[in-house]
Amino acid sequence: MDNIYIEYTFKVSSKEPATEILIAELGNIGFESFVENEDGVVAYIQKNDWNPTDLNAVFVLTSDEFDIEYQHVEIEQTNWNSEWEKNFEPIEVDGLVSVRAPFHTNKSLKYDIVIEPKMSFGTGHHETTHLMIQHLLQLNLANKKVLDMGCGTGILAIFAELKGAKPIDAIDIDNWCYENSIENVERNKCSNIIVFEGDASLLINKKYDVIIANINRNILLADIKTYTNCLEDNGVLLLSGFYQEDIPIIDKEVSEYGLKLDTILEKNNWVALKYTK
C-alpha cells in the first residue's frame, strides 16, 4: 500500500533567509522533502510521522519577524519523478558543466552530469551548488582523495570524479539523500565514489586532500574542527550553505585551526569559501 503524505504549502512574504530556516526546522521535525517555488516552499511529511502541533515549535512560524502563511492537504504518494520532469530545467555552469535530468538532451559540454533529483537537495539550481561547481572547476582533482559532506544528490562527488578525483567519500545524514546519491552515482557510471549514511562521526581517522561541505551554517560551525583534522597538509576546504553576512563567524572558526581564506565566490548573497591548509 502506498504511503499517505501530508502536503504543506508555505507562502513566505520575504523568501530569504526565512525559506532556508523554515526548511531546516521542518526537516528537524520529520518533513522529508521540499520543493521551493516563487511563493515559498511546498513540504511533505508521511502521515504516520505527522503531528500538526509540532509546527508550534517552528521558530519562523511563530516569530513576529517573519510573515508566513500555510495550509495543508492529505495526498497519496506522489510520483516525484513526474513532478521533477515538469519542473526541472537543465542548467549550465560557465559553459563547461551541464547538469540535467535523464530526459534532457545532452548539450555535449566538457562535463555532463545526469541527476534524477527526486526530493534531494543539490540539482545545481541552488546558488550554493552552482558556486561549489565553480570552485571545483578551478581545482586540479586528479587522484585527489575527496570528501563530499552533506552530499544531497551526490552531484559534487560525481563532478569531482569527472575531474579525476579518487577515491571519493560522499556522506549524508538523510536516508532519502543517501539512496538518491547511490542512484545518481550509478547513473553517471562512477566507480570511485562510496556513499555513506551518517554524519561527521564517520570521519574519525579519515584523511582527505579536498573536503566539500555544502551544509547550513550551524552544522558547519559544529563540524569545522572535524573537517580541519581530516584535511591533509596543503589540502583544500570548500564551504558553502550560508550568506555573505555569515562569513566573519565562519572565517573566525576556520582560522582558529590554521587554515587561510583563499577565494570567495558569491551569487545572490549566497557564498562559497575556499580555504587552504
Walk me through the structure.
The chain contains 8 helices and 14 strands. It has 277 residues and is α/β, with parallel strands linked by helices. The chain has 2 domains: 4-78, Alpha-Beta Plaits (2-Layer Sandwich); 124-276, Rossmann fold. A hairpin with a 2-residue loop joins β13 and β14 (270-276). It is globular and about 50 Å long.
What do the pLDDT scores average to? 88
Strand order of the largest sheet: 10-9-8-11-12-14-13
**How many strand segments?**
14
Tell me the major beta sheet.
7 strands, mixed
Number of helices: 8
CA(first)-CA(last) distance: 52 Å
At CATH level 3, the topology of the largest domain is Rossmann fold
| SSE topology string | EHEEHEHEEEHEHEHEEHEHEE
CATH superfamily of the largest domain: Vaccinia Virus protein VP39
Percent of residues in helices comes to 25-40%
Query: Quick one: overall form?
Result: globular
Regarding CATH, which class of the largest domain?
Alpha Beta
Our estimate of the beta-strand percent is 25-35%
CATH architecture of the largest domain: 3-Layer(aba) Sandwich
Structural class: alpha/beta
* Radius of gyration using CA atoms only: 19 Å
How many domains? The number is 2
Low-confidence parts, pLDDT < 50 over ≥5 residues? Answer: none
